[in-house]
Amino acid sequence: MSEAETNNGDPEIERINLRISQSFREVVDETWRERGFNSRSEFIRYALRESVNHPEGAGFWKDLAISEAQFDDGESRSSEEIKAAYGSDDE
């Protein structure tokens, strides 16, 4: 595989693997499309940057991971409950 295939010719770009459940991947895919990102990768890079640059929001990501596990176990919360918990008015 050529360098261009792995990192688009940019030596600063590195590929990583991320394992998530199929159900969570479907939520991520729906989210990046709804929010106008060009790709899943772009959305994930944005989310990672935000969590590093704004660690006070880390509780959200922890809760998201817990929610994924609960969803996989058959437990879930409605989007309205989550929006209310985090004060989001995004539609």
Automatic annotation (TrEMBL):
Taxonomic placement: Archaea, Methanobacteriati, Methanobacteriota, Stenosarchaea group, Halobacteria
Protein name: CopG family transcriptional regulator
UniProt-listed Gene3D superfamilies: Met repressor-like
Bias-annotated ranges (Basic and acidic residues): 74-83
CDD domains, per database record: RHH_NikR_HicB-like
The entry's keywords: DNA-binding, Plasmid
Cited InterPro entries: Arc_rbn_hlx_hlx, CopG, Ribbon_hlx_hlx
Pfam families with a match to the protein in the record: RHH_1
One GO-annotated biological process of the protein: regulation of DNA-templated transcription
GO molecular function: DNA binding
Domain Ribbon-helix-helix protein CopG, first and last residues per copy: 14-50
Region (Disordered): 72-91
Keyword Magnesium: no
